[in-house]
Structure formats: structure tokens, C-alpha cells
Structure prediction request, 695 residues.
Amino acid sequence: MNSTERQLLSGDEAIALACLHAGVGLGAGYPGTPSTEILEYFSTIGGKAQWSPNEKVALEVAIGAAFGGARALATMKHVGLNVAADPLFTVAYTGVSGGLVIVSADDPGMASSQNEQDNRRYAVAAGLPMLEPSDSQEAYDFTLAAYEISERWQIPVLLRVTTRVCHTQTPVRPRASVPAPKPAQFLRDVKSRVMIPAYARIAHKRLREKLSEIAVWNQSSALNTVVEGGKKLGIIASGVAYMHAREALPDASFLKLGLTHPLPMDQIEKFIHSVERCVVLEEGDPYLVDSIRAQSLDVESKPEMFRFGELNVDRVRRILAGDISPEPVKPPGKPPQLCEGCSHRVVFEALRDMDCIVAGDIGCYTLGVLPPFSAMDTCVCMGASITAGLGLRHVLPPEQAKRVVSVIGDSTFVHSGITGLVEMIYNPPPTGHVVIILDNGTTAMTGHQEHAGTGRKLEHSATGKVIYEDLARSMGIQNIHTTGLGKDSAEFAELLKQCLGNGKLNLIIARRPCILVAKYIREYEKCTALQEVRPT
Amino acid sequence: MKKVTNVVIAGLGGQGVIKASDILCEAVFHCGFEVKKSEVHGMSQRGGSVCSDIRFGEQVFSPMVPPGEADFLLVLAPDQVEVNRHQLRPGGVLLTPDLVDPAKLANRKSFNVALLGTLSNHLDIPAQAWDKALQACFPEKLLEVNRQAFELGKQVPAK
Prediction:
């Protein structure tokens, strides 16, 4: 029996609590705002959670667990699902034995992301049922519902949340008991699990049949609710947009959609006909409105300017009033910056002073783009520093090509940088190349998570460790330099100059622990020294 | 609709904006209110502007305080007052860092809690609930110094 006492939880924590109550056997993910706290909290409250090197790996590990009959969880931020898209599309075909829930934490408004893609599109593209909670109570309830749907139809479920759901604390009343999963057990089912074309053709049809059944079931599902209000105005909304709308429009009627793929079209049609004016309010892409209009149903949508950024109460009022006048510009706050004493500073000073063309990557160090460094020229996605840097080296005239440097953080390197090094060895540019791994011993940007290069697991216990120098050496990179980045920036500048001039393939590992966690790392290392657990 | 109380706490990364909002949230939660607390994590951890919205009452829908509707604006950094002023409603209460003298604090890190003490004079939350919240948000060894900071802030008269 679980305590049913009201708790104050963030959406992320509520998802984790639901997973614990559902008896989830394994949670895997890669840190990414705003999803990170799900696995951290799941581990804190006693769940088995682990960081994978990247989201593709995490989802595949979770798929394996679900094939084995366990309930499994994969968590990631929206752009992480791009990395995991390959397994995503095919696990929809294979289906699962144990429930599999994939959390996509989207970031409309880009509080801490490189784009504001709307991952509801993935549910449609891959053919997955999708749930969209609007607060922590729903994050808890919908996670449990997601496992029920996943096991009933043997299909992975996408739980799509956004920053304001993940990072808002609201009261949650947990359920006293949740049906336990069946014990994990492997049952051979070759035609469902092995996607050779002959079996995949059958699997695709099976997937579409499941979705048709779910669509019928969703017509009367309790996951979608009608709030009866005035008949003059009806609002169709999902996720946090519903909350803004409820507040801005107290007299309206609402159709609040919880299971947003496949959509309950009959229910939507009925609601539209029950009100005089019907407006669809959604954050990001016009997913709901396009789907509804495709059924020849007449609804109003938001003007294009509200596709950008988050919605809020004020913007909802504007949408209803058809007000497309420029919105007030918020006074600029103080931008974030690299911490005083951050070891990355030495590197970016040198890159700036030598007028390097810097292919950058995702992490705290992306702040190297801002003054006083202004030393970053590209940043696309995890790992692209190495590969985009190589592309630049291949085509630029030699005097420019020689100045190209790729800069990548340690966690990002483990995530997506290793294949870049393989590319560098396989297709070396004529002028050579310089790759710098900024190794601060942690995934700093997302709040200091462990990764495969730290030698510690999610909960900081010791495990195997990837040694970048050994890895690079085994690939055939000959010029590997490890520097501790002392206070003397001249030393690093000298090393960089030497590498830029030698025309060879160079890997510089600039290693100094993040000043915000150095203290904790020393403590973990002390524990590690005592344990000396290193699986072989 | 029933009245919702809107509080915005603002400052810079590292000042304890989130901690202060945690304490307030905990205190109102103990009083049985519906409460929502929302903030943006991520880049702001690196010394940039940080802002947390706390809303409570009988029923709260949106997790964000609509611009210009904050009843209380608590600012921890002097240079963040002007950039956040637009959040305050006409007649709303602005609580600025100059209300508390950091020299009087046993630990300057508890400046956030001291300013929360000044806010407590304006809110109908019993002392007991505040103390419960402090206990929930701090380990034993930091509790006393934060209790003192809270009391120091409380001595600032509400205008």
C-alpha cells in the first residue's frame, strides 16, 4: 500500500513516483533539461535508474527490458528523441511485452535548448499513443495510464511533457495501490521482434490495427474531459495550455484532451457542435488544429506569432481577442555566463586570441559564444563540433582550414563525439585537425550528472570508466595531449598553437573538474577508493 | 473565481531564489492551499537572472504569474529590481534587497531567507507553518542560522 497523503511534487518527480508505484524494473535516459530530474528522483526513491551514453542507447536498453517482460522507462529531452528516433520508429512495429513508456520533455520557448521542436509530431510519425499531462497530478496519473495502455495493446507509449509541467510543483495524491507487473520472463516471439521485411510488413499492419482500436477506446476514455461552461465559447486544449486557458477564460466550456494521439475525433466533433465559437489552444505547432481541420471540422486557431515561445494567460487572452499587435518586450535580464574560475575560460581565451574558427557543441561551454570570449562559430547538436569542424576543414582554403578547432565537453563526447573521431581517422582533412575535449568530469549544464567517462553510475557508485586517451589511441590518433589547465593560460595557448601548426590529427584533453562539483567528486572518489568495485 | 495570491521571487543564479521559493511553497502547502510553483532551470544556473513564480489559493490553474499581476515581488539582487518591476500589479508590494542588512546575518548565504522573513509579514501564514517549511528545506546544521535570518527579516516593518 502506498501512502495516499498529498505531496508537493514537480511533474518530473510525479512521473518518477508513478514509475515506482507501477513497479518499473528499469529506467534509462540521458540528462537533458527539463527531463533530468525524472531518473534522479526515481533513483532517490528506490527505483533502478541509469544514465546511458545517449538517448538512442537508453531507449534500446529500455526496449530490451520491455521485451523481457519488465515495465521500462526511457527519459529524454525533446532533441534527445531525435537521437532515439531510429529505435522509436521500429519498436512501434515490434511492440513490447512489458509496458514501455518513453518520456519526451519538450522545451517551448527554449529555456535551455537549441530548438523548440514539437515532439507531438513523433507520435504521429512513428504511430505511438501519446499522453499529455497538464500538472503533476496528471503526470502521476497519466504515467500509470500509459503503462496500462502499453500493456493492454503491447505498444510503446509516448508521454509528452513540457518545461512548465516538468518544473512546476503542484500537489499530488498518489494511489493506494497499483497492479504489479508480471515477473520478467523471456517469451520467444520471432515474428514480432525480428524486423526482417517479411515480418515487418505484418508488423506495420498490426500497428495500424492497434492504433485504430485505441482511437475507438479513446472516444470514451476518462483521459479526455469536458468542463461544462458557457455555450458561447468552447476551448479545445491539452497540456499546460489548458491551465492558461482555464484561468484566462473562466466562462468558457472546455474539451481537455489527455490522450492526444490517436485523437478522439467523434468527441471533438460533438464538442465543436455544442458551442457557438470553438478555439483550439495549443503551444508550439498547430498539431491539434491541423488534425481537427483535416476532418473538415471548423475551429479557430492561434495566429502564427503564437507558435513561437510558451503560451501564458496573457497570450491566451490575446489569441481570443485576435490581437496580433507586438507583445511587450520583457526587459533583458542578466545573461548566464561561464563561472568565475571555470576551467573552460582558459580555453576560450586562447581560441579567441588565436582567431580560431570554432565548431562548438552543447553544454555550459556554449557560453563561449558570448563576450568576453566570442569564441564559437557553430553549435548545432550533440557531437556536431567534431564532424562539422571536419567538414569545414575539408572545404576551406588552407589558411582558413588551419584555424578550425572542434570543442566538445566530456559528456557530449561520450554521447555523440566518438563516431566523430572515427570519421576524423577515416577521412582526415588535408590540413589535419584539432579536437579539444573540455573534460570537467561531469555533465555540468544539466546539473552535474555522471556519465560513462566519470567512472561512476547515476547514484555516484563506482563502475567501469571510458578513458578518452586510450580510446583515441586505439583509433590511431597519434597526437594526444592531456593538460590540467593550470592558472597559466599561456601554457594552454602554446599547446594549441603547436597543434594548429603541425598539420596532423590532434586531440587535446583539457581536464579540470567543474569548480561547482570538484568537492563532491573528491568525496565520491574517496568512496570509490574504499569500494574498488570495477566490473571486468 | 476565488482569489489567487501571486508571488514572484527574482535574483541571480546562486543567490537562493529557488530555495526561497521552495520554503514559501512548502509553507503554503502545509496550510492546505492549492499551490503551484514554477521556474525555469538550465542556463540560469550560470549566474544569470533567475525567477520563480509561486501561486496559491483555493484553486490555481496557470503555473505562471501573468505579467503585471504579481501581488508581491521579492528581489534578491539590486540590479534585478528594474528588470522585474513589470511583473508587479499596480499597488503590489515590492520587497527589495536593501530591506535587510547582510552584515547582521550570521551567514550571508541566508540572505534569501531573511528577505522571505520580510515577506512573511504580508502573508496570512502562521509562524508554525513557516518553521515547518524551514525544517523541511534545511539540514539540521543550517536550520538555526536560517531561523535567525528569517526572524531578522520579520523585524522589518511591513509598510
